[in-house]
Amino acid sequence: VKRSGIVRLWNIGKQQPLRTYPTQGDLGFVWHLAVSIDGKRFLCGDSRPSVSVWETETGKTINTLQDEKLGDIVTAAVLADDGKTVFSVWSKANAAPDDFACARFVVWNGDANKVQWSQVASYRGRPPVLVQGDKLLIGGGPNLFDTWDWKRGKRLESWGGHKGNVNALAVVAKGEIVSAGQEGVLMTWRNGQLAEKSTAHAGPITALAVSKDREEWLTAGADLIIRHWPLDARRPPAFKKSHTAPITSLAFSASGSWACSASADRSVKIWR
Asked: Which residues are 148's β-sheet partners?
């Protein structure tokens, strides 16, 4: 794989190049390469950005997917066992840390030159991808692991813990543990297993406090919002624009009727 925009086929034993694709180097920088099981085709992902399927023997391009609306860069590209279905991840070049829609997962039929389906995703970096029959496993590093039924375009399973620092922990009702992450996600753990998770803040969660009866809790984030989490609330109420700098700590009163917040703006506020 060459940055000059070409791909070469080599005779490994003789250490000699057998073929160059394309002959004039029309590709961008080539980042990804995958060969079909029978060796008759290969896939490359390059910096134009695009993914393309080629015939190994003839050097002919079968089809190319190039769409700026999908993303700025191709961060993953693999070929299915059928030699025609391509799985690729297209990402924003400079995604913000709190951008949880920074990529798009695309399944493309290279023979028909048709996108079968695509979905917004939060994959960062260059996520590893493994295809096994009708199932596809993607994730690791800064990403959760996802298992997809790629023919139906359905996510079957998602697992993994926080993908950043754990900034706070607390024990709530029934002995469950709540953890607050740098990525803004609040997770509830039951018997050592992840029971629930929700995106609580647009950015890091900076503080967490639990009431004396452990039936409700507060979180604060770098987005300068405080959220109140009673157990039966699907959408927790929010105290917006509470401070002008990051909130550094939270506390409930013994009665639970009021709480206070402290901030890097050098203020303490009382909430009822």
From this structure: 136, 155
Return the closest-CA partner of residue 203 out of 97, 101, 95: 97
For the stretch 11-50, pLDDT in tens is 999 999 999 898 666 788 899 999 999 999 999 999 999 9
- Walk across the sheet containing 205-210 and list its strands: 205-210, 216-221, 226-230, 238-239
Largest CA distance in the chain: 80
pLDDT at 2 over 60: no
pTM over 0.70: no
Beta-sheet pairing, 226-230 with 216-221: antiparallel
User: How far, in whole angstroms, is CA 202 from its chain's centroid?
Assistant: 15
CA distance 17 to 29: 19
For the chain, what percent of residues have pLDDT higher than 90? 61
- Among candidate residues 77, 80, 78, the one with its CA nearest the CA of residue 48: 77
Q: Going by DSSP bridges, is the β-strand pair 268-271/103-109 parallel, antiparallel, or unpaired?
A: unpaired
The answer to whether residues 76 and 129 touch, using CB atoms and an 8 Å cutoff, is yes
Contact call for residues 243 and 267 (beta carbons, < 8 A): yes
